[in-house]
Amino acid sequence: MNVFERIQFLRTELRQHNHSYYVLDKPTISDFEFDKLLEELISLESENPEFFDTHSPSQRVGGEVTKNFNTVKHQYPMLSLGNTYSEEELREFDKRIHKLVEEQIEYVCELKYDGVSISLTYENGQLTQALTRGDGTQGDNVTTNVKTIKSIPLQLQGNFPSFFEIRGEIFIPHAGFKALNADREQAGLETFANTRNTASGSLKIQDSKEVAERPLDCFLYHMLGKQTPYDLHYENLEAAKSWGFKVPSETECCKDIDAVIRFVKKWDKLRHDLPYDIDGIVIKVNSLRQQEQMGFTAKSPRWAIAYKFKAEQALTTLNEITYQVGRTGAITPVANLEPVLLAGTLVKRASLHNADQIAKLDIREGDKVYVEKGGEIIPKIVWVEKQDRDLFSQPTVFITECPECTSELIRTEGDAKHYCPNSENCPPQIKGKFEHFISRKAMNIDGLGPETIELLLKKRMVQSIPDLYELKINDLLPLERMAEKSAENLLKGLEASKQIPFERVLFALGIRYVGETVAKKLAKHYQHMQALLDATQEDLENVEEIGEKIAESVVFYFADESNRNIVQRLAKHALQMEVGDEDKAVSNALEGASVVVSGVFKQFSRTELKKIIEQHGGKNVGSITKKTTFVVAGENMGPSKRQKAEDLAIPLITEEEFIQKLANAVC
Ligand code: IVH
Question: For 594-666, which CATH class?
Answer without folding.
Answer: alpha beta
